[in-house]
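Interim report to the steering committee. The following record documents the input for SEC14-like protein 2 (413 residues).
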Amino acid sequence: MSGYVGDLSAEQEESLKQFREKLKDVMQPEFDDYYLLKWLRARKFNVDKAEVMLRKNLQWRKQMDVENILETWTPPEVLTKYYPGGLFGHTKDGLPVWIEPAGSLDPKGLLYSCKKSDIIKYKIQHCEMIQRALKGQSEKFGCRIENIIVICDFEHYGLKHLWRPAIDIFKEVLNMYEPHYPETLRKTYIINANRFFSVLFNIAKPFLSEDTKDKVVLLGANWKQELLKIIDVDQLPVKWGGTAVDENGDICCGSKIGMGGQVPEHYRLPKHHLLDNDKLAKVTVARGSKVELEYTSNLPHSVLTYQFYTESHDIAFGVYRRTVDGKQDVEDMEQIRFTQRVNCHMIQEDGCVQLKEPGTYVVVFDNSFSWINSKKVVYNIQVLPPYDIYNLKRSSSFGSLDDKEVVLSSTRL
C-alpha cells in the first residue's frame, strides 16, 4: 500500500488512528488525513518518530513566525531582484512547477548584500508560496494535490558556486526542507548539468533521505522533450522548451521566475555599521566552546536588541530563557531564537526579539562546531522596555554597554 488516502493497509490505518490520538492537544482544522499521512510516510509509519517530527515542526513554525511570513515579512530588495527561482505553470496532472536557474546565482554578491538569516527566511517564504500553490491547484483540479515538480537549470554553474559560505547556506536549506516540508517533492529534474553539479550533489547526499535521492532525475541533451512529456507546452517558458513568454516578450518569464544575475556593487552593505563604537562590548569565544551572556527582563513584552560581528569567520547565535532558577543547560531552556550560524564576519548581524514574559534570558555565541579558530565577537546587546522599541527607530544609537573584553575557553553561567 502507498500510504496515501484511499490506499492504506490495516496497519497503516491503525497507525493513523494512533497518530491522531497522540496529537489531540495540538490538533488544528487543517490537520486532516492527507496532512497527517505526510508525516507518517516521512517516518515509515513509525508513530512515535512522526509525532516527534511534527511537534518539532510546530515549534519551529512558531519561532520563525511562519504562519505570517508571507504577509508580514518583506525581503531585502536584492533578494527579490537577484535570487533565482519561481513558480511557473503546472504539470499535466496539476502539480505546480518550480523553476530554479541555479547557474545564474551570484553567491558572493548576495552574501555581501544581505544577511544569511534573510536568505533562509526568503527560502521559507518560497516554501510557503508552494504550500499556497498546492492548495490552489487542489481547488482548481478538484482533487488533493500534495506534490511539486522542480526544474533545476545548472547552465553556467561553476566554481564560484562552490564557495564555502554559499555551500553552508545550501546545507541549511536542505536541512530545513525535509523536517518541515516532508513529502512535498515529486521529482527534481536536473538540466544542463556539468562536473560542478556532481560535486554539489555529493555534498548534498548526506543531508538527503534515500527517498529524496531517488526523486532526483538527471536529464540529458534531450531534456526539453522529456519535460514536455509531463508539462504542456503552454505551461513552460520558451527558455525551457515551452511557448510561454512575458507580456514584454521575455522568453524566460522573468516577471515570475527570478533570473538571478550579478549583484550590482551598490547593494553591498558596509561590513560593520555598529553605533557608539567606543562603547561596544567584546568577547573571544575559544575554539570548540561557547559563551553565554545573561540579561534580565523585568517587564512583559520587553525587547532584546542585538548588533554584533566577528573579526573573522562565522559563529552561531541564539537566545534562550531560563525556565528554572540557578544553573541550567541551554538545551533545557526555552528557545526564543534558536541557535543558527551567521556570516557576521561578512555582514554585521542585527535585529531584535520580543521577550513575552519577565525572566532571565541567555544570549549564546556558539563556536563549538569549530576546532581550529577562536572568534572575537564585538557586540551591543540590550533589553529595552516595550515602549522603547518605538524610540529605537528614531534614535541614533541602541545605547551602550560598559567596555569589556572576556577571553574564555568555555563559559557556563
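DSSP finds twelve helices and 14 strands in the chain. The committee is asked to note this result when reviewing the revised timeline.
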